[in-house]
Amino acid sequence: MVRTQIQLHEKQVALLKKMAAADHTSMAEIIRQSIDFYARTKYEAIDEQRRSRAIAAAGQFRSGVKNLSISHDMYLTEAYDE
Fold first, then answer.
1. 15-18 long-range contacts, Cβ below 8 Å, gap at least 24?
2. pLDDT tens digit string along 70-81?
3. What is the pLDDT of residues 32-43, one digit of tens each?
């Protein structure tokens, strides 16, 4: 773990202390859990949007190559070699 300092409002500290006491844990653990929760909820939504856009795009384009699904590695190698 990396030690860091943050500044909180007095009301936030009071709330953290109450939460930590109720959960029999430290304020630092509450903060770590809060950051994890925030990151999951915010960035999972972004990932879900990307996934939805990718699924919507699948099958919408045509390469004109008949055996692309079978020989995609060969075509990819050729594209990178050029």
1. none
2. 888 888 898 888
3. 999 999 988 887
Q: CA-CA-CA-CA torsion for 13, 15, 21, 25, nearest 10 degrees?
A: -70
- For the chain, what are the domain ranges? 8-57
Q: What is the pTM of this model?
A: 0.54
Neighbour tally for 26: CB within 10 Å: 11
CA distances, 4 to each of 1, 28, 31, 32, 59 (Å): 9, 10, 12, 12, 48
CA angle (6, 1, 28) in 5-degree steps: 45
